[in-house]
Amino acid sequence: MLSTIDDATLMKVAVSLGEEEAVKLIEFLKNLDEITDDEIANKTGIRLNAVRKILYKLYDHSLVSLRRTRDPKTGWFIFHWKLQPDQLEGFILSQKRRVLEKLSVRLDYEANHDFYYCDTPGCRRVTFEEAVEAVFHCNACGKSLVHFDNETMTEKLTEKVEQLRKELGE
Amino acid sequence: MPKRNDLEQKALHFVVNTGYQGVLQSELWRELSASSREGSRVAIKLEEKGLIRREKELEGGRWTYRLFPKRMPANIETIVDCPCLMCQDNARCDPTTAISPKSCEKLTVWIISLGKETDDPAPIEAQVDGSSD
């Protein structure tokens, strides 16, 4: 299948997996057809357990496919991996939908609540209802609570949600 | 046939990267170092697959086509730094539970950081000045 995804996007996805060596692994995998985890570890110098961890992460999102054969001598399974760049577009879209859902929940919460805080690092913001219950004193540090202006946050969040909706064509 | 497919993939990338202004078919085959015959065949194939749109255009007294991508490439840029993207708590994250997007601290930090990189240096200096008081 023809894909509109370029290598730069593929690498950004690799970075987003949060594994340092994922970029190196995907860079190596993209030029190959099918390869075993053992061979990947030998040829890239990445430790075998790290290779497997990244591959399983990619497999969770269907970004690699897996074929299993049995070693005739030992009877152990051999896993053959293959990158599936054509799944990348679907992966990106589904991640965007998921993130949009989370951000919409947050935006709704921010827009419909008044917040109070004590300005102590480590203490959390509370809603107006919670602040009334605590007689406008922080439950953790005891300092008095003042109003928290979340307008900038709401604006930024609205912008991001709109951008995501536009990109998803919703 | 992999060879034909390779050319199609390259052509598609080239057209997609031109964005909304599109590209002339004659520029496409020159860019791909292919012949005009190959170029027009690839363009027709991509149009048949619904990946691009062709519009007739007069260029230097000759009729050619301008090629436009039908879909923009999927881009992860918008959410690449969002903590929700690869959050380990994703399976447990729900508005009704303790781990929730409503109160997530990682998300708060990210929202506050949004648009910071595009800010002018002046407000940051002002902030530093303000905090030193």
Outline the structure in words.
The complex is a heterodimer of chains A (170) and B (133). Chain A is α+β, with helices and mostly antiparallel strands. Chain A has two domains: 7-83, Orthogonal Bundle (Arc Repressor Mutant, subunit A); 94-167. In chain A, 51% of the residues lie in helices and 14% in strands. Chain A has seven helices and six strands, in the order ααβααββαββαβα. In chain A, the strands form two sheets. A three-stranded antiparallel β-sheet of chain A has the order 1-3-2. In chain A, helix 1 packs antiparallel against helix 2, helix 3 (37-44) crosses helix 4 (48-60) and helix 5 (88-111) packs antiparallel against helix 7. The longest helix of chain A has 24 residues, at 88-111. The mean pLDDT of chain A is 89. Chain B is elongated, with a radius of gyration of 24 Å. Chain B folds into two domains: 2-69, Winged helix-like DNA-binding domain superfamily/Winged helix DNA-binding domain (Arc Repressor Mutant, subunit A, Orthogonal Bundle); 77-132, no CATH class. Chain B is built from five helices and three strands; from the N terminus they run H-E-H-H-E-E-H-H. Chain B has helices at 2-18, 25-31, 36-48, 105-113, 121-132; strands at 23-24, 52-59, 62-69. The longest helix of chain B is centred in the N-terminal third of the chain and has 17 residues, at 2-18. In chain B, strands 1-3-2 form a three-stranded antiparallel β-sheet. Chain B is α+β, with helices and mostly antiparallel strands. The chains are: A alpha+beta (170), B alpha+beta (133).
**Strand order in space, largest sheet of chain A:** 1-3-2
Number of strands of chain A: 6
Percent strand of chain B? 5-15%
Give the tally of structural domains of chain A: 2
Low-confidence stretches of chain B: 119-133
- Spans of chain A of at least 5 consecutive residues whose pLDDT stays below 50 are none
Rg of chain A: 24 Å
The total beta strand count of chain B reads 3
